[in-house]
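Progress note, project year one: complex with S-adenosyl-L-homocysteine.
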Amino acid sequence: MNLKTHYPKKRFGQHWLVNKKILEKIKEVAELNANDFILEIGPGRGALTSKLLDSEIRKLHAIELDYDLIDFLNVKFKNNDKFSLQQGDILSTNLDSFNNKITKVVANIPYNITGPILDIFVGRLGLIRDYNYKKIIFLMQKDVVDRILAKEGSSSSGALSIRMQLLSKIKKICDVEPSSFSPPPKVFSSLVVFEPLKTELRLDITSEKYIDKLLRIAFNSRRKMLRNTLKSIFSTDEINKFSESSKICLNLRPQDLSINQWVNLADNCIKIKK
Ligand code: SAH
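Model obtained:
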């Protein structure tokens, strides 16, 4: 395909990264080595792909939705045996056979699917467990990154920030201006790195699932006190019992609880239900 006739498609969130410093920065924070198996989501015209392939890595597998870019990418990287490409939607691609091979996930995320991508690559770590992800490096909307990093007491704190912080160490590297992309998006972006916790440092699966359940219930009515939202799954008697054992004031609203308090609350709920 002639790239001159390929115009960026809005519906696929196509904003090519053109800022060389940011491309370099992504490669730098990825800390690539000869054992790395990279999954790249949405290689686009291959700007980031080239940068990553230009390092000592084992493999880079890219998944691109846009048919019109497939031939171009295959030609561009035909001499590179570390590169493989799959046409498909990352949201419906079965990654089971890859998950324990992939060491790093890298993407300039199509903004319209940020939520589901975070859910698959960070949130669902809770279910996969058999992963080998060392780093997940995303260029994504700044406001979502700020929300993910929100601490308790902030109005932005939500189920997303708590789940992400529970499953990984999160580092914001820098903000990225719209002019770093072509065409420029309407919003600022941020470069962020998630380092999933090693399996042995994770909570046990029952606690993780329970926290998810509590988060869903509590943040569904974020203006209500926990004492009231929890009524949908506990009797008043049970609520009083674990309010005492967890030493958490249930007159608080969900955004006021720290990560440790959620863990503590879940553990106490599990004990009471036993
Ligand atoms: N990595 C390139 C392109 C980023 S734009 C760069 O940095 O320049 C986002 C890319 O994701 C586009 O190539 C778009 O076609 C692709 N994309 C959009 N939705 C996708 C999906 N559901 N699955 C896989 N790729 C997708």
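The longest strand covers residues 168-176.
The beta strands are 16-17, 37-41, 59-64, 83-87, 104-108, 135-141, 168-176, 181-182, 189-196.
No further modelling is planned for this target in the current period.
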